[in-house]
Amino acid sequence: MKLLQLLADHVKVGVPLLWNVRDRDRNLLLSRGNVVQSEAQLQALLARGMYVDEVEYRSQRAASEKPKPQAFDPIWLWSDLQTKLSLLMRENSADPEFLDKLGQLSMLMQLLIERDADVGIFVMMQADAVKYAVSHSVHTAVIAELIAKKVGASDDERRTIINAALTMNLGMFELQAILAAQATPPTDQQRAAIRAHPARSVAILQQAGLKDVDWLRAVAEHHETPDGKGYPRGIKDISVAAELIRHADVFAAKISPRATRSALPPNRAARESFLSMGGQENPMAALLVKEVGIFPPGAFVRLANGEVAIVLRRGQLASTPTVFSVTNSNGVPYIEPVRRDTARKDFTIDSIVPRQSVMVRVNPSRLYGYDKG
């Protein structure tokens, strides 16, 4: 029996209990249907610790939920967008409407980020290695859009950057999925395909009828570097869009899990990216750290009181994001995530918690308030 801890909000004085309530040792305290008679009794029970069987709680909740009208849910829209993009990338130029469909998806992405950028970052941080080929390009586009907007790029310029980020690896889409799951280093043949993929991506886009020179150039140059040590051509004069996408690409790769390694903690990924981008000498470096944050939405953190929480929104200060605790200090899941004020001493963030070590599942749509059920 797995237990969930009850909080004051879950039990009302004078209202019949919906579940059997137990203590931390699983001893029955109150049977379902019993009533807590007074506030004093409730506080005494809470101090002792009130727990409920997870299966019992979930079953009761599922039975009580009623169908509701469809509402705006960006979590679902991000998932649907990635599914459609994955299918489109596999068809690419064979689909006569490839560019039109891609344009619709990039426009939707821009609107989703405009509506709630924190959700876009949350989705990025919660991604797994299974759909790496498509999710990586989406994450690169999200980061690039956030930075491009801050440097004053127009809507059309940012749309071009998003389109380029989504199609930068078009020439190695299937190979990228293989490499993400591959436990051995790339073969010589795979390395050759990696070096050739910018030009291959450009060729596919041109075959699809693309004439946008800025888009094509950004794709062609997204692995070139100002010192001439990039590939495939080793040029130094690269477009601003290509440089922005390259930085976003590298950061997105650092925070993404692979078959052979876990994702880097976001604060470490931000620090490494900041330094590799030239630190204070490169305005994009500071913007990347500021826009994504050292404790970005979707990251799990340990608070000063020992609780594990999930970050929901960036704060005015990098160190004070909005978080919801999902377990108590003993690792027992809360029946529902509890909001904590990270500006308070007992709720300050102590460290990042690796996602793979957190066994609690959360409903992001409900946390963000998009699912009213």
UniProtKB/TrEMBL annotation:
InterPro entries: Cyclic_di-GMP/3'3'-cGAMP_PDE, HD/PDEase_dom, HD_GYP_dom. It comes from the Bacteria. It holds the Pfam family HD_5. Signal peptide: none annotated. GO terms for molecular function: phosphoric diester hydrolase activity. Gene3D superfamilies: Hypothetical protein af1432 (1.10.3210.10). Residues 111-305 form the HD-GYP domain. This is HD-GYP domain-containing protein (C-di-GMP phosphodiesterase class II). It comes from Niveibacterium umoris.
